[in-house]
Structures are given as structure tokens and as C-alpha cells.
Amino acid sequence: MERPNILFIFSDDHALNAISAYGGPLARLAPTPHIDRIAREGAIFNSSFCANSICGPSRACILTGKHSHVNGFVDNDNSKFDGTQWTFPKAFQAAGYQTAIIGKWHLVTDPTGFDYWEILPGQGNYYNPDFLQQGGGRKRYPGHVTALTTKLALDWLDKNRDKSKPFVLMCQHKAPHRNWMIAPEHFTVFKDTVFPEPKSLFDNYANRASTLKTQKMQIDADMTWTSDLKVLPNPLGQENDKVGELNRMTPDQAAAWKAAYAAENKALLAKFPTMSEADKLHWKYQRYLKDYLRCVRGVDESVGELLDYLDKSGLAKNTVVIYSSDQGFYLGEHGWFDKRWMFEESVKMPFLIRWPGVVKPGSKPDALIQNIDYAATFLEMAGIPAPKDLQGESIVPILKTGKTPRSWRKAIYYRYSGEQTHNVAPHDGVRTDRHKLIYFPSTKEWNLFDLKRDPNELRSVHTDPGYAGVLAELKVLYVKLRAEYKAPEW
Ligand SMILES: [Ca+2]
């Protein structure tokens, strides 16, 4: 059989609740038809998790097939990716594939193992972004980053690759990462939509680890009025709170962008002095959701363009298409934006895959998979032997049968090492299909959640005598997985 191509479409901070194929509370109001097409024609995994819920670490886990504490990229503040280590693109290159990465990279050092790369510096910009060039230097392109990333990916597919070889293309979007700068074609999308609020928008963080209260990722307290929410002038008179991207825009772009928000902002500023704190949170939530989902709309359209190209070029039948994102994101659950926590909304990663002739269309496997599995999976797809020290496992048997092999993992291990941003405490833990055990070393606290009875994770049952048996079992599992994955002591 001809070796398949792999098109890995990846975004940044895309919550499962913002993909309609996952059927969350926003599915009807903010559909993602093109991403959903991958699920319809392939498989969608609901129990897909990251190993460390932040940007750089998730990417490093994917490239190496290993946990952060093993591949060395543990946080976004201090880590630099060691590009001399084994990565799956290097193995594909050695096996005769053409490899390329276009868009967000976020691993500090230059990419290795790619025949072609053109990447955003660091977090990159939404408007008129610079792309770092393979031969050194950078190039600024006029326009919005999502459309530009798509165009560069299509150019490589259509014109710039060696068509005598199979390919791996990683098309990696910046969107929908903070601060959610929307493209002109999406200015009026969701204009009159009112999004439903999650039950825990006003969470008071009771009945769980004390450290939940000290995070700084709340929509009410930590989301800024101007940079995040695009209210100009700043209603609190905070002069440091600015939309930095305005400096990159042409005068026409800036005028159009400001005009898009002008009427709503005027109405807000008029009533601002009489609004309660609760009123402000309701308002912030709606503005946040609209801009976030407008950025998602752009990513979904990008997926549509890429799938169309595969159809038109005849590549579709021998190309595996994956859609994923580096982690999930809070869309108001627990009153939050951002990620990091081992709670469901951020520890889950979208994972949708179409593999014509292999994956049965419409499959919904329930195996617990993790981003450390992608490298082994891709290698098996291409018939390339995997190194023995990979920590992830190939999910190809699951893709072929739709079933979970008996020997498959019964729990995933998760570890967030903590960094200054958003002041989220370090923690690690294990999650089975029903329960989740989390340990917070800075306060020496355990939390235990029963996801069947408490899917929103509002009450830890670690002191409940009825859960003593489950707690003991999960603590044994925690010790076992930490040893197996070589996790250092806290
Ligand atoms: Ca991210």
C-alpha cells in the first residue's frame, strides 16, 4: 500500500465546547461545519487529553512522544526546545517524506526535522504578522494571520513541495489564542447572538483545593477591558491597557476594526457607571465568546479550504487529516478564560481524524488518548519503526477497529509544573474514564472528582468516606504512573 500523506491541522487554545461535532452548549449557535466534516468522514475522540495544558509543552509532547519532564520543555516561561533530540518529523524525513511546518511553533529554538518551515515568532501577531524564514530573517505579510497561514500551507502543498515524495504538513494556527483579534470578514458574525452562560460562571471555588482561589484567570477580575475585550476608551481609565495590535495595522485596517466595536462600546460606556459587578461579568462573557468564536470561525474556514484542496488535487484519498489543538480552554466555566488546570475543559484536546479506507466514517472511539501518542501513531501509519523510548502508544489499532484494545491504558497522567502567568499552582494527577485524582504539592492537598456524578467538577470527594476505596486505588495508580513515566518528585 502507498504510504499515506499526513495533514496535521492544529490550532491554539481551541476548546471542545467550540467545536460543534462535540455537541456542547454552543454547537447550534456557533457551528464548525468544516471541522465537523472530519468527524463525519472519520473519527472524533471525546477522551483525548494533553499531558501539560499550555502551548509550548503540548507541542513538544507531540513532536517527541514524551512527557514534558522527559523532553525538557516544561513551561512557556523558561523552556527552550532541544531540537537535537529525536522527533517524529526527523523520522519521517529519514524515511523519505517531505516535512513542513507553517504557522505557530512557539518552541523558541528553530525547527529541526523539517524540509520547509515558515513560523510565527513566539506568540506571533494577528494583523500583518511577521513569519520567521528558514534562511534567516523575517517577512511581514499584509492581512490576518489565519488566512495567511492557510495560504502559505496551500502554496507549499500546491507549488513548493517535492511531489515525488509523500508529505507531512503541520499547518498550525495562532487562533483562537488570546487576545482574539478578529478578521474583517468576521466583524459582524454573532452580532445579535446571545450565548448561554455555563452553570459555573460565578464559581466561588468552594469544596476544592484552596489554591483555586488564588489563580488570576477570571473573566471578571483578570480579563482586561481594552486589550482583551476591545473597549476603547478603557472604562476604568487604565492607560496601560491597550490593544497592541493597533500599532501593526494600516490606518484603514485600524479604522474598520474600531468601527466594528463602536456602537456596542458606546452603549456599554453609557451604562457602565450604573452596572453591578454581576452585570459586568455578563457583558464581558458575551464579548469574550463572540470574539473567541469569530476567531474559531476563521480556523474552521481554513479547514474547509484545506479539505477542498485535497479533494480538487486528488490527494484526499491517500491523506490522513487530523484536527487538533494544543489544549482546551475555559469559555467561562469556573468563571475562567485560559487553560493550565487539570479540569476537563483545559485538559481535553480536540482530536478528529479522517483516514480514508481505514477509519470508519462517524466513529466515536472512547479510548483515553493523549498528545504523547501522536508520534507513535503517525509512525505506524507510515510503517516507520518507533524508537523504544517513546512514552506514548500508537492509536492505529483503535483507528482500525474503533475499539479499545484490552491492554490499552486505564488512566492518563497529567502534570503542570506551574509558571508565573495566571498564578496557577503546580499539580499533577491521573484521570480514568470516571474519576480524577489531583495533587497540589505547594499546599499538599488532594482533590478527587467523580466525573459521572459531578461532571462540572464543583466538589472534591477526597474526604467523603464513600470514596475511600476509589481514593486508595487512584493513589496506587498515581504512584505507578509517575514511576512509569519517570515523573520527578515535587
Ligand atoms: Ca495554547
UniProtKB/TrEMBL annotation:
SUPFAM superfamilies: Alkaline phosphatase-like. PANTHER family: N-ACETYLGLUCOSAMINE-6-SULFATASE FAMILY MEMBER (PTHR43108), N-SULPHOGLUCOSAMINE SULPHOHYDROLASE (PTHR43108:SF6). It is an enzyme of class 3 (hydrolase). It comes from the Bacteria. Keywords: Hydrolase. GO terms for molecular function: N-acetylglucosamine-6-sulfatase activity. Signal peptide: none annotated. Its EC number is 3.1.6.14. Belongs to the sulfatase family. Residues 332-482 form the N-sulphoglucosamine sulphohydrolase C-terminal domain. This is N-acetylglucosamine-6-sulfatase.
